[in-house]
Specification:
2 domains, mainly alpha, single chain, 9 helices, two-stranded antiparallel ribbon
């Protein structure tokens, strides 16, 4: 498949030139012939001169339209990106249109010169080459400038996209944090504002406190029971020691000591009896409280299952709607 030609290559159909240095000014060309040897032989003839056309017309609408359609048909042209904005491509339409008008003017001049002065033809051909080279260089410069500008725009767009992504992630994290704070605050407010929940939690806290007190008293009574058992063991040891030493001491001393010991023993036994009665009463009270606590716990569980789970309620799977409905009903009751 033949490679796609540039607009300037499509304009030139008579001559094919290689790329050369660009010239931005319109030259005033002079030609003295093709062969210097022939010029030396005919030095008496006048030198052939011509003036570069200065009245080159502005590209017509038909030329611009033809170049525009040609550029649109090419997939590599940047005219596709400019058509929506109503603009023409500088490198694919405008510069080739100028080249077309310059070429048209030079061809007309070449036709007249070839008829009147054939020796000036090489100079006109050189002018056409310079014109094509200069406009071709301008096209390449415009293309390179556009590519560089597009690269800068893409890099700038990539940086902007990265900054926007960072901002989006940061905003999402901040939004999640604020939402979590709002949920926690709303949960605390509900605990404080809803009377039924407040009353139930107060009752549960009271029962837990009482249960801890009972556990503490039970430990104290166990410690007291162990202390009493230890004292009984000591008393038995003292009695055994007293019996063993009774044969060696006088009778008066033995009677006096025995009376004091008996009095202390009777007092201790009485204290133990009272302590046992108190322990029994306390254990009886603790048992009643434990039974009552079990009843309250079962009642709370039943009330939770029946009153707070909303059985057969259509919105049971929508906790936010339930809380909103409860809050509204409470506000209406207060009003």
């Amino acid at each position: 498949m033949e490679a796609q030609r540039s607009p300037l290559q499509r304009l030139s159909t008579n001559e094919t030139w290689e790329s050369g240095p660009s010239q931005s000014k319109r030259p005033r060309a002079q030609s003295k012939g093709n062969d210097r040897s022939s010029m030396s032989s005919s030095a008496h003839e006048p030198t052939a001169t011509f003036v570069y056309p200065e009245d080159v017309a502005i590209p017509s609408r038909g030329v611009v339209k033809a170049l525009y359609e040609e550029a649109i048909s090419s997939k590599e042209s940047n005219q596709h990106a400019l058509s929506d904005a109503g603009l023409l491509s500088f490198e694919d339409v405008l510069l080739p249109a100028v080249a077309y008008q310059e070429e048209h003017a030079l061809k007309a001049l070449q036709a007249r010169v070839q008829r009147d002065n054939p020796d000036a033809k090489p100079a006109i051909v050189a002018c056409r080459k310079v014109m094509f080279d200069s406009i071709g260089a301008a096209v390449e410069a415009a293309k390179e400038s556009r590519i560089a500008r597009d690269q800068i725009d893409r890099e700038r767009e990539a940086v902007w996209q990265a900054e926007q992504e960072v901002k989006r992630v940061t905003a999402a994290a901040e939004q999640d944090r604020l939402a979590k704070v709002d949920r926690e605050r709303h949960r605390r407010d509900l605990k404080k504002k809803l009377p039924r929940n407040q009353e139930l939690w107060r009752e549960v806290a009271y029962l837990m406190t009482e249960l801890n007190k009972l556990h503490r008293e039970e430990r104290q009574w166990k410690d007291t029971e162990e202390d009493i058992s230890q004292r009984e063991i000591e008393m038995k040891a003292l009695e055994e020691k007293k019996n063993s030493d009774s044969d060696e001491e006088p009778a008066d001393t033995e009677i006096e000591i025995s009376t004091d010991k008996i009095t202390k023993i009777e007092q201790t036994v009485e204290d133990i009896t009272l302590s046992a009665v108190r322990i029994e009463q306390a254990l009886h009270v603790v048992s009643g409280i434990i039974i009552e606590s079990d009843k309250v716990r079962k009642d709370l569980y039943r009330r939770y299952k029946t009153d707070f789970q909303f059985h057969r309620y259509p919105g049971v799977k929508n906790p936010k709607g339930i809380l909103r409905a409860l809050t509204q009903s409470q506000d209406q009751d207060e009003e």
